[in-house]
Design a protein that fits this description.
binds ligand C2E; 9 strands; 277 residues; alpha/beta; binds calcium ion; single chain; 52% helix; 12 helices
């Protein structure tokens, strides 16, 4: 028994070591991913329930690793956040979106708005990138309404006045702000008071179980009603079935996003999508 204990301890530490090595290796690879053109963006259309038109899309970051293949953002974004690389990566995402959005508006959809995910650390630094984004929009003659910034609740968990000041600057300039993954945190509702919010994105976990016996349908409806009264528009995430689509539509949800509507797609396919819609 004593031996066994010793062995399992040994395996345990070996496992931990393996995990640590894997993380460090991945982080090192990520440092070169931008230069090596391994990062790209997929665009997922977001449609209006009212008329089915796709006037928005979320930019979703992808990493095609030369040896390991596709690595999920849920795996590498936390690494990027911890290491500070997220600033450079986010700036790259923003540049990419800027390169395309005006052209897409000119050729396919005047009202097109691209939603960009942002990370807390982008707002925490005193002087930083994220406020340069506004200058960039002006320089490039891109209308502020072309961009929507998605923020998550953990942004304000460490709330400092700097964060909301920056968000208010964006909003004042005409950039929309969405509270992402709404309902999953501890105090989503209190952020509605502190943050300038134009949109709420109902987390896909609510939509998923909406058709079960759970309370999630009631919660979805309550969120939509509350948002309406506050003058906030609602996007439902993770719409995977006709049934979910119909229920959300009947509840008066404004926008839908999910596999039932359209999957995230390459830049080329997104252009074809815009052309066809
Ligand atoms: P998120 O912001 O909640 O993005 C929505 C996620 O739901 C995406 O996962 C999308 O592919 C997925 N999704 C869309 N429709 C459906 C559906 O019908 N069913 C299901 N089950 N999932 C659906 P993805 O692309 O793996 O991204 C994961 C997370 O990574 C994102 O969650 C976001 O938090 C983060 N992320 C992605 N791109 C960026 C980025 O450029 N910057 C930052 N900071 N975070 C990003
Ligand atoms: Ca998002
Ligand atoms: Ca989300
Ligand atoms: Ca998320």
């Amino acid at each position: 028994a004593k031996d066994l204990g010793k062995n399992s301890y040994k395996y345990y530490t070996q496992d931990m070591q393996a995990v640590a090595v894997k993380r460090i290796t991945l982080l090192n690879d990520l440092r070169y991913a931008i230069q090596n053109d391994e990062l790209f963006i997929e665009y997922q259309p977001i449609t209006s329930f009212k008329d089915g038109k796709a006037i928005k899309a979320e930019a979703l970051l992808r990493w095609q690793h030369p040896e390991k293949g596709r690595i999920a953002p849920d795996e590498f974004i936390p690494l990027a956040e911890e290491s500070g690389l997220i600033i450079e990566i986010s700036n790259w995402v923003f540049e990419e979106v800027c390169k395309n959005v005006k052209r897409w508006q000119t050729h396919y959809c005047r009202e097109l708005q691209i939603c960009i995910n942002t990370s807390p650390s982008q707002y925490f630094q005193q002087e930083t990138s994220i406020t340069d984004w506004l200058t960039r929009l002006l320089d490039e003659n891109i209308a502020a309404r072309s961009i929507l910034l998605e923020v998550t609740e953990n942004l304000l968990m460490e709330a400092d006045t700097n964060v909301s000041k920056k968000l208010f600057q964006f909003r004042q300039a005409g950039v929309d702000i969405a509270l992402d993954d709404f309902g999953t945190g501890y105090s989503s509702i209190s952020y509605l008071k502190k943050l300038p919010t134009d949109y709420l994105k109902i987390d896909k976990s609510f939509v998923k179980t909406m058709t079960d016996v759970s309370n999630d349908k009631v919660l979805c409806e309550a969120i939509i009603v509350m948002a309406k009264k506050l003058g906030i528009k609602v996007v439902a995430e993770g719409v995977e079935t006709q049934e979910q689509y119909d229920i959300l539509n009947n509840m008066g949800c404004d926008f839908g996003q999910g596999y039932f509507i359209a999957r995230p797609m390459s830049k080329t396919n997104f252009e074809a999508f815009l052309k066809a819609h």
